[in-house]
Write a structure and sequence with these properties.
It is built from 23 helices and 8 strands. The protein has 415 residues and is α/β, with parallel strands linked by helices.
Length: 415
């Protein structure tokens, strides 16, 4: 075969020396034991596609599709391979040259590409779900539809933040807040909790109306052009506001927001603006002043699940634990394989339900074995996946909560 058009950053690809230190961190390799389902195996496939040695054929695409994009391999890699960028470039190439079956096209292009990034469309799509649940007609649905319904929270907490919320007392400054798509439709109360925490921490919270989807789902599913459009919209919405930081409370969104500079590096009109935007993006847990949260003890044993795109993509693992421990005190217990993906991985639990289910069961069993009554995390996808898994396992005594809601339980935050 002849070489195809350049889609892969070869310098980044060559940084991988195939040492294998990433193998023990890769969830799919741990589950299948297949070298092609490991990071180094997939990079070999990517480079073979780039050189033309391997076509965009079903067998090769299958191994790329099976990747969660959790980026645990980046945390383990001594060479600093930017696997996430390589994966997104390859998936973009695949979507341009590989035909999908009707069901996968429906999921990827319609549900993930045209519904999830638009809150009003998501709310509309969820109306029949509410009716089916109320009437208890779920048993009439096909298996894939039942599985999708099982992922949804039992209660949808809609919410819309005001344009500006003032700090409690003297303001330390002003931060922007990104509402997210899933967050504002399903976890609106968590957004309110996040804004309340920021207000009590001394920050005015500005929520620009012009913001939209961060582009994460587009980038992860091989639609980089749409992801770049999302990036430009958000940059334009925030860049003219006098902000100390731009706060996000969803790890999956945050990992894309901090990489707008990489996403738009080849666009002369936006590259510098993207870098400036990303430099201001902070996850909620890394921005809050932990010293303002006194240890109170929650009375329940608590553990913490590392959202992949916070721990691996952004390298944030200490700050959320410090905040959780500030509430739980001596009741905190570490979770076995806390940074192993739960199987959510954005929309992965929709496109790859079998592997997602295996990882969900593994995560839930670790939570049960920890003896915790509460599991805290920082990402809506993880929250949905873990809540669903706990229900399936009959572990109704264990609650999964977002860290912002957990910190406000019992109103423990100091004013």
């Amino acid at each position: 075969m002849s070489a195809v058009g350049q889609f892969l950053d070869e310098t980044k690809a060559l940084a991988c020396v195939h040492c294998g230190l990433c193998l023990s961190s890769c969830p799919t390799y741990l589950e299948t034991g297949n070298e092609n389902d490991s990071p180094r195996g997939r990079i070999y496939i990517m480079r073979a596609m780039q050189s033309g040695q391997l076509g965009v054929e079903a067998a090769a695409v299958r191994h790329i599709d099976l990747c969660l994009g959790c980026r645990a391999c980046e945390s383990a890699c001594p060479s600093g391979v930017q696997y996430g960028t390589l994966l997104e470039e390859t998936r973009d190439h695949i979507e341009k040259h590989h035909g999908r079956g009707l069901f996968q096209w429906f999921l990827r292009r319609l549900v993930i590409g045209q519904v999830f990034p638009f809150p009003w469309r998501m709310r509309l799509a969820l109306l029949p779900v509410r009716a089916i649940r109320f009437l208890r007609f779920g048993f009439l649905l096909p298996k894939f539809a039942r599985e999708m319904m099982e992922l949804l929270p039992q209660r949808l907490a809609r919410g819309k933040l005001p344009a500006k919320r003032l700090a409690k007392g003297v303001a330390r400054g002003q931060v922007g807040f990104i509402e997210g798509c899933v967050m504002q439709v399903m976890f609106g109360d968590t957004n309110e909790s996040s804004a309340e925490l920021l207000n009590r921490d001394g920050w005015d919270v500005l929520t620009p109306k012009g913001q939209g989807c961060c582009g994460a789902l587009h980038a992860h599913s091989g639609q980089l052009a749409k992801a770049r459009d999302c990036a430009r919209r958000n940059i334009a919405a925030f860049e003219n506001e006098p902000l100390d930081a731009i706060i996000i409370n969803a790890a999956g969104c945050g990992s894309t927001l901090v990489e707008y500079g990489e996403l738009l590096k080849d666009d002369p009109a936006w590259a510098e603006r993207a870098e400036a935007f990303s430099a201001k993006v902070k996850d909620l847990v890394s921005w809050l002043d932990g010293s303002r949260f006194p240890v109170s003890g929650s009375g329940a044993k608590v553990t913490y699940h590392d959202a992949c795109h916070l721990a691996h993509a952004q390298g944030i693992t200490i700050e959320p634990r410090e905040l959780v421990k500030a509430k739980s005190g001596e009741e905190f217990v570490e979770l076995a394989e806390s940074d192993l993906c739960c199987g959510s991985a954005g929309s992965y639990n929709l496109t790859e339900p079998e592997m997602a289910s295996r990882l969900q069961k593994r995560k839930v069993q670790n939570i049960i074995d920890s003896g915790a009554e509460v599991v805290v995390t920082t990402n809506p996808g993880c929250l949905l996946q873990i809540q669903s898994g706990l229900r399936k396992a009959g572990a109704h005594h264990i609650r999964a909560v977002h860290i912002a809601d957990y910190l406000l339980e019992g109103d423990m935050v100091g004013n």
